[in-house]
């Protein structure tokens, strides 16, 4: 169904983190193509580049963050602060948009993390749709956190880490999605407010697809009595992503052009994960000892308190000369689509996971925190699209897994499974496919308000 252009406006409010901005901008772009006018309210922190989206109206609100609070090292602290600081400016901005009688604002679409927005939407009698940008399986695991605590799985005990969580197969205790923070009680509070805010919303969208998470979608449908829409993978509707906050180094593609087909392992741990120097050294020597060509993203801030490249272990660059290439930030979607790529060693962020599946690239998973732990376990144990590093970052296990994935029959079988899922994705986005139908139902739904 096509919305009549100019008659319905949607207001979207992304969380200012790369892995959340990308899917929200994709959703906005699709809804604009479907005929909606789009307003994006955003914080000053990590502001999207307005010039890339001339069709959207952007409204910047003060987020009250001081420069030393820009860090993503303590996400719970950042999210708590943003949810408090933005209440007043968000309300004022939304009030001013709603007072413009030219267009009917059909609904507010916010990231699930913006829990305070449900009260604001209610006060204006505006339907709020929650967009959860990560997987359904991880959302279910977050939802079960109070239960995990009650059952004594949390705080995690070293002796229990490898034990299975009976009530939540296939999770092991170590996979329960906690996030390191100086304020553990604030994490519980955020999760609980996020769940309450979602249950009170008018609908819930996931960037996933039915064929991958059918069981989990059924479970979430039983827990949350609101309409649920699985419309992903959203980035597939567009050529390579343009909502990057960092400059993507295109020299990575020039280097890949010179490599043999399916020979290169691409290594990237997303936009937030951090490691210490010992872990960096394990990654480096794991890559060197695997003897496999690699493209490695070492993002500014990846290694705590250091200039990353200066901290690479002595002798590493000499050992991998001609076989490896390092960039600060890559055009990831183009990289994954390149014929030279044979595997993706990822932190299992949800966007990276979807982007990998969409290009038929098998994965090695080393999750760092939160939803990544659950995504990784499902990739390894349920969907069988990759191999998980079970010992953290350990050079011997890294070397072994790279070999298994890139050179052995087991890797070929995993690649075949991912390739077949890639075809499934293509059909679910076509007319009549599951995600396409879900998107159409979603549009009908918001037009019914
Ligand atoms: C965060 C959490 O880590 C993740 O678990 C959650 O699902 C979303 O929020 P992030 O660490 O940024 O996300 O990972 P991910 O979800 O994979 O998103 C990273 C995005 O940055 C991807 O769209 C990827 O294409 C892009 N990227 C990454 C680049 O453009 N270049 C790079 O070099 C690396």
Explain the overall architecture.
The chain is built from 17 helices and 13 strands. The protein has 449 residues and is an alpha/beta fold. The chain folds into two domains: 8-241 and 431-447, Rossmann fold, CATH 3.40.50; 251-425, Glycogen Phosphorylase B (Rossmann fold), CATH 3.40.50. The strands form two sheets. A seven-stranded parallel β-sheet has the order 3-2-1-4-5-6-7, with helices on both faces. The longest helix has 21 residues, at 409-429. Uridine-5'-diphosphate-xylopyranose is lined by residues 17-20, 22, 133-134, 241, 244, 248, 268, 270-273, 297, 329-330, 332-333, 349-352, 355, 370-372. Pfam families: UDPGT.
Summary keywords:
Rossmann fold; six-stranded parallel beta sheet; 13 strands; 43% helix; binds uridine-5'-diphosphate-xylopyranose; transferase; quercetin 3-O-glucosyltransferase activity; UDP-glycosyltransferase 76B1-like
Bound small molecules, deduplicated: uridine-5'-diphosphate-xylopyranose
Q: In which order are the strands of the major sheet placed?
A: 3-2-1-4-5-6-7
Biggest sheet: strands, sense, closure? 7 strands, parallel
Q: CATH superfamily name of the largest domain? A: Glycogen Phosphorylase B
What portion of residues is helical? 40-55%
Query: Tell me, what is the CATH class of the largest domain?
Result: Alpha Beta
List segments where confidence is low: pLDDT < 50 over at least 5 consecutive residues: none
> How many structurally independent domains?
2
What structural category arises from helix and sheet content? alpha/beta
Query: What is the CATH topology classification name of the largest domain?
Result: Rossmann fold
Strand content bin: 5-15%
Mean residue pLDDT:
94
């Amino acid at each position: 169904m096509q919305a009549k252009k100019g008659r319905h406006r949607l207001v979207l409010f992304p969380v200012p983190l790369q892995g959340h901005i990308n899917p929200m901008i994709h959703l906005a772009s699709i809804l604009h193509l479907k005929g909606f006018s789009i307003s994006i309210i955003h914080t000053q922190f990590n502001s999207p580049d307005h010039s890339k989206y001339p069709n959207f109206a952007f409204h910047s609100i003060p987020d009250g963050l001081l420069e030393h609070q820009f860090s993503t090292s303590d996400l719970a602290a950042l999210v708590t602060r943003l949810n408090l600081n933005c209440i007043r400016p968000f309300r004022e901005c939304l009030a001013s948009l709603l007072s413009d009688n030219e267009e009917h604002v059909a609904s507010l679409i916010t990231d699930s993390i913006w829990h305070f927005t449900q009260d604001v939407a209610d006060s204006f009698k505006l339907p709020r749709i929650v967009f959860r940008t990560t997987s359904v399986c991880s959302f279910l695991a977050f939802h079960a956190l109070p239960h995990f605590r009650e059952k004594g799985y949390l705080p995690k005990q070293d002796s229990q880490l490898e034990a299975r969580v009976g009530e939540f197969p296939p999770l092991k205790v170590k996979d329960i999605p906690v996030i390191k923070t100086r304020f553990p009680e604030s994490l519980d509070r955020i999760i609980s407010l996020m769940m309450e805010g979602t249950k009170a919303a008018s609908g819930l969208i996931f960037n996933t697809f039915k064929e991958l998470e059918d069981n989990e979608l059924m479970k979430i449908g039983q827990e949350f009595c609101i309409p649920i829409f699985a419309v992903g993978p959203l980035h597939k509707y567009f050529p390579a992503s343009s909502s990057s906050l960092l400059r993507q180094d295109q020299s990575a593609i020039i280097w890949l052009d010179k490599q043999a087909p399916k020979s290169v392992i691409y290594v990237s741990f997303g936009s937030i994960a951090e490691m210490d120097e010992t872990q960096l050294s394990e990654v480096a020597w794991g890559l060197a000892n695997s003897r496999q060509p690699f493209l490695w993203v070492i993002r500014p801030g990846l290694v705590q308190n250091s200039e990353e490249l200066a901290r690479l272990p002595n002798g590493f660059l000499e050992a991998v000369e001609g076989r490896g290439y390092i960039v600060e930030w890559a055009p990831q979607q183009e990289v994954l689509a390149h014929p030279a790529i044979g595997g993706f060693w990822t932190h299992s962020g949800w966007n990276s996971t979807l982007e990998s599946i969409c290009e038929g690239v098998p994965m090695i998973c080393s999750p760092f925190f939160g939803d990544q732990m659950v995504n990784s376990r499902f990739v390894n144990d349920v969907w069988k699209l990759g191999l998980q590093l079970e010992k953290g970052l350990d050079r011997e296990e890294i070397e072994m897994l790279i070999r298994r994935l890139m050179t052995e029959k087991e890797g070929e079988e995993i690649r075949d499974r991912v390739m077949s899922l890639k075809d499934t994705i293509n059909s679910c986005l076509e007319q009549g496919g599951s995600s396409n139908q879900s998107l159409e139902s979603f549009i009908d739904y918001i037009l019914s308000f």
